[in-house]
Amino acid sequence: MPKRRQLRAFDLRQIEGLAELIGVDEAGRGALAGPVVAGAVLVTKEFLEGRWAVTRGGRVNDSKQLTPEQRAEIFADIEQLVLAGQVHATFGEASVGEIEALNILGATKLAMRRALENIYPPSAFAKQVEPDLFSSVEEVRGFQPQVSCRILVDGLALRGFIYPHTGIVRGDARSLGVAMASIVAKVTRDRMMERLETQYPGYGFAQHKGYGTDEHCAAIIRLGRCPIHREMFLRKLLRGRVDPAQLGLFDG
What we know:
The chain is an alpha/beta fold. 44% of the residues lie in helices and 13% in strands. The chain has a single domain (3-194), classed as Nucleotidyltransferase, domain 5 (2-Layer Sandwich).
Protein backbone atom coordinates (compact mmCIF):
# COMPACT_ATOMS: atom_id res chain seq x y z
CA MET A 1 0.00 0.00 0.00
CA PRO A 2 1.47 3.43 -0.91
CA LYS A 3 2.82 5.46 1.99
CA ARG A 4 0.17 8.19 1.81
CA ARG A 5 -2.62 5.60 1.92
CA GLN A 6 -1.09 3.92 4.96
CA LEU A 7 -0.87 7.24 6.84
CA ARG A 8 -4.35 8.37 5.86
CA ALA A 9 -5.89 4.94 6.46
CA PHE A 10 -4.46 4.84 9.98
CA ASP A 11 -5.81 8.29 10.83
CA LEU A 12 -9.18 7.58 9.24
CA ARG A 13 -9.51 4.55 11.52
CA GLN A 14 -8.48 6.59 14.55
CA ILE A 15 -10.90 9.43 13.80
CA GLU A 16 -13.90 7.16 13.19
CA GLY A 17 -16.86 8.39 15.23
CA LEU A 18 -15.03 11.62 16.16
CA ALA A 19 -14.85 15.11 14.71
CA GLU A 20 -11.11 15.70 15.01
CA LEU A 21 -7.70 14.13 15.52
CA ILE A 22 -4.60 15.83 16.95
CA GLY A 23 -1.12 14.49 16.20
CA VAL A 24 1.69 15.43 18.59
CA ASP A 25 5.46 14.96 18.31
CA GLU A 26 8.63 16.56 19.69
CA ALA A 27 12.06 17.64 18.48
CA GLY A 28 15.25 18.17 20.44
CA ARG A 29 14.77 15.63 23.17
CA GLY A 30 18.24 14.14 22.66
CA ALA A 31 20.14 17.37 21.96
CA LEU A 32 22.91 18.77 24.16
CA ALA A 33 21.71 22.34 23.78
CA GLY A 34 18.59 24.37 23.17
CA PRO A 35 14.93 23.90 24.04
CA VAL A 36 12.75 20.89 23.43
CA VAL A 37 9.90 21.76 21.06
CA ALA A 38 6.59 19.97 20.51
CA GLY A 39 4.34 20.29 17.51
CA ALA A 40 0.59 19.65 17.46
CA VAL A 41 -1.54 19.40 14.32
CA LEU A 42 -5.33 19.06 14.33
CA VAL A 43 -6.93 17.37 11.33
CA THR A 44 -10.52 16.51 10.48
CA LYS A 45 -12.01 13.65 8.48
CA GLU A 46 -12.81 16.15 5.74
CA PHE A 47 -9.13 17.10 5.53
CA LEU A 48 -7.97 13.46 5.53
CA GLU A 49 -10.31 12.75 2.63
CA GLY A 50 -9.39 15.97 0.86
CA ARG A 51 -7.11 16.73 -2.06
CA TRP A 52 -3.95 17.72 -0.17
CA ALA A 53 -3.91 14.60 2.02
CA VAL A 54 -4.61 12.38 -0.97
CA THR A 55 -2.20 13.93 -3.48
CA ARG A 56 0.53 15.50 -1.34
CA GLY A 57 0.33 13.78 2.05
CA GLY A 58 2.58 10.99 0.79
CA ARG A 59 5.56 13.36 0.99
CA VAL A 60 5.13 13.65 4.75
CA ASN A 61 7.27 11.34 6.86
CA ASP A 62 9.19 11.24 10.09
CA SER A 63 11.01 14.58 9.95
CA LYS A 64 14.36 12.93 10.67
CA GLN A 65 14.06 10.96 7.41
CA LEU A 66 13.68 14.09 5.26
CA THR A 67 16.20 16.63 4.05
CA PRO A 68 16.03 20.21 5.40
CA GLU A 69 14.70 21.31 2.01
CA GLN A 70 11.93 18.71 2.05
CA ARG A 71 10.96 19.67 5.59
CA ALA A 72 10.86 23.36 4.68
CA GLU A 73 8.63 22.64 1.67
CA ILE A 74 6.16 20.62 3.73
CA PHE A 75 6.23 23.21 6.53
CA ALA A 76 5.30 25.90 3.98
CA ASP A 77 2.42 23.68 2.82
CA ILE A 78 1.22 23.31 6.41
CA GLU A 79 1.32 27.10 6.85
CA GLN A 80 -0.90 27.47 3.77
CA LEU A 81 -3.29 24.81 5.07
CA VAL A 82 -3.56 26.74 8.34
CA LEU A 83 -4.28 29.98 6.50
CA ALA A 84 -6.96 28.17 4.49
CA GLY A 85 -8.54 26.85 7.69
CA GLN A 86 -8.00 23.21 6.70
CA VAL A 87 -5.83 22.27 9.69
CA HIS A 88 -4.73 23.83 12.96
CA ALA A 89 -0.98 23.64 13.66
CA THR A 90 0.90 24.99 16.64
CA PHE A 91 3.95 24.39 18.82
CA GLY A 92 5.10 24.65 22.42
CA GLU A 93 8.58 24.72 23.89
CA ALA A 94 10.33 24.08 27.19
CA SER A 95 13.51 26.00 27.94
CA VAL A 96 16.90 24.69 28.99
CA GLY A 97 16.15 25.86 32.52
CA GLU A 98 12.93 23.85 32.53
CA ILE A 99 14.77 20.81 31.17
CA GLU A 100 17.25 21.06 34.04
CA ALA A 101 14.48 21.52 36.60
CA LEU A 102 12.02 18.90 35.34
CA ASN A 103 14.34 16.44 33.51
CA ILE A 104 13.92 15.89 29.78
CA LEU A 105 10.76 13.78 30.07
CA GLY A 106 9.04 16.34 32.27
CA ALA A 107 10.10 19.17 29.95
CA THR A 108 8.88 17.23 26.90
CA LYS A 109 5.46 16.80 28.51
CA LEU A 110 5.44 20.52 29.33
CA ALA A 111 6.22 21.44 25.71
CA MET A 112 3.48 19.09 24.49
CA ARG A 113 1.00 20.54 26.95
CA ARG A 114 1.80 24.06 25.77
CA ALA A 115 1.32 23.03 22.15
CA LEU A 116 -2.03 21.40 22.91
CA GLU A 117 -3.21 24.34 25.00
CA ASN A 118 -3.00 26.45 21.85
CA ILE A 119 -5.72 24.21 20.40
CA TYR A 120 -7.83 23.10 23.39
CA PRO A 121 -7.49 23.60 27.15
CA PRO A 122 -7.26 20.42 29.24
CA SER A 123 -10.76 21.12 30.59
CA ALA A 124 -12.21 20.51 27.13
CA PHE A 125 -11.34 16.83 27.58
CA ALA A 126 -12.62 16.56 31.15
CA LYS A 127 -15.22 13.83 31.64
CA GLN A 128 -18.42 15.46 32.79
CA VAL A 129 -21.79 14.01 33.69
CA GLU A 130 -24.70 15.29 31.63
CA PRO A 131 -27.28 17.04 33.79
CA ASP A 132 -30.56 15.28 34.42
CA LEU A 133 -34.02 16.42 35.45
CA PHE A 134 -32.89 16.87 39.07
CA SER A 135 -29.88 19.05 38.28
CA SER A 136 -29.77 22.65 39.43
CA VAL A 137 -29.89 25.54 36.97
CA GLU A 138 -26.18 26.19 37.64
CA GLU A 139 -25.31 22.58 36.83
CA VAL A 140 -27.27 22.72 33.57
CA ARG A 141 -25.64 25.99 32.52
CA GLY A 142 -22.19 24.73 33.47
CA PHE A 143 -22.41 21.52 31.45
CA GLN A 144 -20.20 21.34 28.39
CA PRO A 145 -19.99 18.17 26.30
CA GLN A 146 -16.61 16.50 26.05
CA VAL A 147 -14.74 17.57 22.92
CA SER A 148 -15.03 15.08 20.06
CA CYS A 149 -11.32 14.63 19.51
CA ARG A 150 -8.56 12.04 19.95
CA ILE A 151 -4.92 12.93 20.66
CA LEU A 152 -2.17 10.75 19.19
CA VAL A 153 1.31 11.17 20.68
CA ASP A 154 4.39 9.72 19.03
CA GLY A 155 5.97 7.01 21.19
CA LEU A 156 4.70 5.38 24.35
CA ALA A 157 1.82 6.85 26.32
CA LEU A 158 2.94 9.53 28.79
CA ARG A 159 2.33 8.68 32.42
CA GLY A 160 0.63 11.47 34.35
CA PHE A 161 -0.01 13.63 31.27
CA ILE A 162 -2.94 15.99 31.77
CA TYR A 163 -4.45 15.33 28.34
CA PRO A 164 -6.04 11.95 27.59
CA HIS A 165 -4.11 10.49 24.66
CA THR A 166 -3.00 7.41 22.80
CA GLY A 167 0.71 6.64 22.44
CA ILE A 168 1.65 5.43 18.96
CA VAL A 169 5.08 3.83 18.65
CA ARG A 170 6.70 5.15 15.45
CA GLY A 171 3.66 7.36 15.12
CA ASP A 172 5.48 9.73 12.77
CA ALA A 173 5.69 6.85 10.27
CA ARG A 174 2.11 5.65 10.81
CA SER A 175 -0.06 8.75 11.24
CA LEU A 176 -0.29 11.72 8.89
CA GLY A 177 -1.26 14.01 11.77
CA VAL A 178 1.71 12.92 13.89
CA ALA A 179 4.05 13.15 10.89
CA MET A 180 2.88 16.72 10.23
CA ALA A 181 3.41 17.55 13.92
CA SER A 182 6.92 16.12 13.60
CA ILE A 183 7.64 18.54 10.74
CA VAL A 184 6.25 21.49 12.71
CA ALA A 185 8.37 20.64 15.75
CA LYS A 186 11.57 19.99 13.81
CA VAL A 187 11.45 23.02 11.51
CA THR A 188 10.43 25.34 14.35
CA ARG A 189 13.27 24.15 16.58
CA ASP A 190 15.84 24.21 13.78
CA ARG A 191 15.01 27.84 13.10
CA MET A 192 15.34 28.65 16.79
CA MET A 193 18.80 27.07 16.83
CA GLU A 194 19.83 29.02 13.73
CA ARG A 195 18.91 32.26 15.50
CA LEU A 196 20.82 31.16 18.60
CA GLU A 197 23.93 30.68 16.47
CA THR A 198 24.15 34.47 16.09
CA GLN A 199 23.85 34.91 19.85
CA TYR A 200 26.39 32.21 20.72
CA PRO A 201 28.78 31.95 17.76
CA GLY A 202 31.47 29.36 17.45
CA TYR A 203 29.49 26.27 18.47
CA GLY A 204 27.94 25.58 15.08
CA PHE A 205 24.33 25.54 16.28
CA ALA A 206 23.07 26.43 12.80
CA GLN A 207 24.65 23.22 11.46
CA HIS A 208 24.11 20.56 14.13
CA LYS A 209 21.12 22.19 15.88
CA GLY A 210 22.55 21.39 19.31
CA TYR A 211 23.01 17.64 18.86
CA GLY A 212 26.14 15.86 20.02
CA THR A 213 28.19 15.77 16.84
CA ASP A 214 31.99 15.51 17.02
CA GLU A 215 32.24 19.13 15.91
CA HIS A 216 29.89 20.26 18.65
CA CYS A 217 31.73 18.32 21.35
CA ALA A 218 35.05 19.76 20.16
CA ALA A 219 33.59 23.29 20.34
CA ILE A 220 32.35 22.69 23.89
CA ILE A 221 35.80 21.53 24.98
CA ARG A 222 37.37 24.53 23.27
CA LEU A 223 34.92 27.24 24.37
CA GLY A 224 33.22 25.80 27.46
CA ARG A 225 29.47 25.57 27.72
CA CYS A 226 27.12 28.47 27.07
CA PRO A 227 23.75 29.24 28.71
CA ILE A 228 21.75 27.15 26.26
CA HIS A 229 23.74 23.98 26.92
CA ARG A 230 22.08 21.34 29.08
CA GLU A 231 24.55 20.85 31.90
CA MET A 232 23.38 17.37 32.88
CA PHE A 233 23.62 16.16 29.29
CA LEU A 234 27.17 17.49 29.00
CA ARG A 235 28.28 15.73 32.18
CA LYS A 236 27.08 12.39 30.87
CA LEU A 237 28.62 12.87 27.45
CA LEU A 238 31.98 14.31 28.42
CA ARG A 239 32.63 12.48 31.69
CA GLY A 240 36.24 11.31 31.57
CA ARG A 241 36.95 13.12 28.31
CA VAL A 242 37.68 16.60 29.62
CA ASP A 243 38.60 18.44 32.79
CA PRO A 244 35.30 19.70 34.33
CA ALA A 245 36.96 23.10 34.81
CA GLN A 246 36.90 23.48 31.03
CA LEU A 247 33.10 23.43 31.08
CA GLY A 248 32.74 26.72 32.92
CA LEU A 249 29.81 28.98 32.17
CA PHE A 250 29.99 31.07 29.03
CA ASP A 251 30.78 34.64 30.00
CA GLY A 252 30.99 36.30 26.64
